[in-house]
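From the pipeline queue, job 12 of 40. The input is one protein chain; the requested action is below.

Action: predict structure.
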Amino acid sequence: MSEVAEGALFIVSTPIGNLSDVSKRAIETLETADLIACEDTRRTGQLLQLLGIQKKKLIRFDAHTEFKKKSKIVSQIKEGHKVALVTDAGTPGISDPGEQLIREVVDQDLNLSVIPGASAPLAALVASGLPMKRWVMEGFLPRKGKERQEILKRLASEERTIIIFESAKRLPETLVDLCQSFEEEREIVVARELTKIHEELWRGSLKLATEHYTSSPKGEIVLVIEGSSHKASVSDEQIIKALRKAKDSGLSARDASNQVSRDLGISRGKAYGLYTDLD
């Protein structure tokens, strides 16, 4: 176990499907923890039982309780207790509860240690066969509305490999949206039920993906999408028009340039350079 002084937060990765993937260090950390903060006490209780770990104090720590419970957990650490943070599966904080607590622990200069292990986005990425040197993790897309469309528009010009989480229920709809926002021949890998008995890696174009997944499959889904091979062609006239609109709305040169850069998928430097030429 890591040589961290009494009173610390341990960020513990748990299996994403296959119990055999849990590390010896993770088991030792859970065994010696004074408190385990978990997304679902029932599911974590079942995991502990399977690992032969009994009589542990669990505290519910999910998206609905993170803000309220983080102060209590920080107090426990300050009092010298070892707190293990886990989620239902994978690594805490990655599209799961934990980010706010980890930030608080760091801000207060308290002891912290990471127990690495299973990670769905990394597993999907390395199994995809798509470029791995540069990639971006988007997590879950907004379910609908302007924010969803703006993010899809931005991702369309992203040159790095893109990783997105999606529920099985919303998969068909999301694939259609991706096909409409990206080039329909862009390669995608749909990773389903990773590390489990019915693990599946479907590969093909976005267009073929929409035809293949006309109904919702079962299981946990990770999408790995090829990055854009070219930047969208945007004329200076279009950029200037967008900059003028942003300026007229009251935005500063910096904020206007940042907004237009995001909206049109161009560099901030180019946007700012054209802003300085505005009347």
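Job complete. The chain has a mean pLDDT of 92.
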